[in-house]
Amino acid sequence: MDDKWPRDAFLPFNAGPRACLGRRFTETESVAVIAMIVSRYKIDIKEDPKFAHETADQRRRRVLRSKPGLSMTPLKVPLVFRRRQET
Ligand code: HEM
């Protein structure tokens, strides 16, 4: 993956003195939520014969397409969640 994307363009919590006070909280909570989901589900990108010959880079671009704006909206995230076995 190329590392030339403008990192400063991603400011979900804003910056400076009025930046989000809940940032640390929400980042910690998000990791906990994602860990819980991933421990319960196996998550795969939906297989589609239409995209059988795409490269890894083309697949990444397709799956991560988003609509830019005040908030960024994913266009289509073709994920499949399969429940893992209960232990
Ligand atoms: C994904 C979750 C969150 C996002 C993306 C987010 C984003 C933001 C952004 C962009 C601002 C700045 C708004 C501005 O520029 O005027 C902000 C402010 C703020 N956020 Fe969050 N926030 C999140 C979660 C939280 C949580 C969980 C809390 C509290 C527990 C929180 C508390 C605050 C407070 C108090 C401010 C105002 C800071 C100030 O004006 O000095 N946020 N947030």
TrEMBL record:
It comes from the Eukaryota. The keyword NAD does not apply. Keywords: Heme, Iron, Metal-binding, Monooxygenase, Oxidoreductase. One of its GO terms (molecular function) is iron ion binding. Transmembrane segments: none annotated. Belongs to the cytochrome P450 family. This is Cytochrome P450. It comes from Hermanssonia centrifuga.
